Predict the 3D structure of the following.
Amino acid sequence: MRSNLGFFSDEKFRSIFFQTLVVGLFALGLLFVISTTSYNLEKRNIATGWSFLQNPAGFDISFSPFIEFKSTDTHLKVYFVGVLNTLLVSVTGCIAATILGFILGIIRLSSNWLLSRLVYVYVEFSRNVPLLLQIILWYSILIQLPRVKQSLQFLDVFYISNRGLYSPRPIFESGFSYVSIAIVLALISSFLINRWAKKRQDNTGQQFPVFSSSIGLIFIIPLILFFILGSPLSFEHPELKGFNFKGGLVIRPEFIAMFLALSIYTAAFISEIVRAGIMSVSKGQREASAAIGLKQTWIMRLIIIPQALRVIVPPLTSQYLNLTKNSSLGIAVGYADLVHGFGGISLNQTGQAIECMAIVMATYLSISLTISFFMNIYNRSIQFKEK
Amino acid sequence: MKKLLSIFAVVAFAFSAHAGTLDDVKNRGFLKCGVTTGLAGFAAPDDSGEWAGLDADMCRAVAVAVFGDRSKVEFITTTGKSRFPTLASGEVDMLARNTTWTISRDVNLGFEFVGVNFYDGQGFMVPSALGVSSATELDGATVCIQTGTTTELNLADFFRLNGISYEALPIETNDEGKENLFAGRCDVYTTDASGLSSTRAAASNPDKWKVLPEIISKEPLGPLVRHGDHQWGDVVRWSLNAMIIAEELGVTSENVDAQMSSNVPEVLRLLGVEGNYGEMLELSNDWAYQIIKQIGNYSESYEANVGPDTPLEIARGLNALWTQGGILYAPPFR
């Protein structure tokens, strides 16, 4: 008895014992869930397996900007269309939310009372109203736009109606590839010039007009080449034929509603993160840089932001993850994302709920882990480097 | 390992096993019936908040068969997508939710359709102002469509067959479809013709909307239960059949008491005066009498909910008895 107790009072033994117990119970629970599920599926004659992925979907998806989809394509293709649409709204949403969030975060700290109050109201409103309601609000506004036959027209080429925003579609003719090559080369060389100029400034203190020379390389040279080659670019204009506009590029209200709601909602959080980041940099830094005569904009860009980024990036990562996961709310307005197409229609047509949901969950997990991975690399690159 | 798994299977069985749905329902004291989120004429709350409609009557008929009381039902709303998981998980005892009987649902999803309470077909509804007279003129149109339905598949087939293009706008519920169609976000709304009539009837100005003549599919709508519980399946199946047979025999809620002394043998069997059919179903012997008394026969339910005198104005058509030019037919009551 005594020796038993003595054994148990050994901290190392106890911790191993409890850890094994917890892991064991967890494994047992998992096994129970799996066996119950498969038993019940079998009992109810519900088909299982992955072969449904190769069956034709039988339904159409209208919103598939990257790959063409027909009703004879497989459920696997439904999955890819969904992933691409999810990525589309997540990536554009993250970019817009970051830009908007940074601008608003800085304005919030501005000494202009009116501006900073306005941003305050915006942040409090969009942070505290459920995202789903905001998505539905934007969508309800968008479908109240004029009907397709009464579209608003801008510059004779843009049309806005409750079917979306139509614009001309660029058509690249032969010879345009040279222009693209020129742009890529210009991008690479301005990057190299930037590096060289920085090194030279570090060594000699002399500055080089990096910005204007890059603009020249990236815009002027390809533009000249473009005209020399005889403008190898034309536009296909949208035209109202029958029920809808034909031709041109179209951005659907479902996408616009998702994009606006996601980026505006997340920007509110990001602006608070940016504000916190900037305020975390001690006042002395700003005063010291002002004392050595730096311009206001330089103080921000060279002194404050690099230090603030260390505080900003980790919570920013979690906002990116949130935005990506929140994009699954697209189902509320019929945005054809992963949950709507594969996790909704395919699931319902095939009845294979467990398989479909497992795939959808694994996909969100992989997207999130990929975002975390790259943000962690970026985070490490901006951390304070001790020499 | 094998043994461990089998132990789990037994434990799982203990958790999931039903003594049979009929016993569950009896023990619970009321029926849980899955219906739509609201489709006038089929299942929708009326002015006093009571669920009414052809499908709602189906639920009530089963409740009457089991309890002899039409109020012993809990109506549980389901969307086109949630209806099957809701039934499979046992959250409802049966579905009466404009659900099309197809082979894959009957076989692959593990359900059992017990009959057809409405023969329907998929149609199209457009604004009259659009000037369209046939569905084949819809090339390039934007079509509102409820996801997770057979209509979604029929639509793709129809347009593919006719070599015309369309743009699908997926929506979740009938209300969403209505909203998008009325706002002009889509040109056409497609669903079962009965659903279109229901939607049109609910519009502020029904004359502004037109149902196109094409019916592009067979949509036999009927109640369904989980596969494998035959006793319960029989109860639901014969609750429906009793209403159809009552119409065939001319027994109505008005004259049912007088019919108790009828000289037609099948009427006497139906009403439980002769034979012990109730006992076979483990119900009381007057179960069918109670259905007819409290709900009415099929015709009464039809005329009250979707018939020509209601806002839906759907003629009997296919849903007339087989003796009157329709295809409504129930096996003999003997």
Q: What stands out?
A: Residues 9-18 of chain B have pLDDT under 50 and may be disordered.
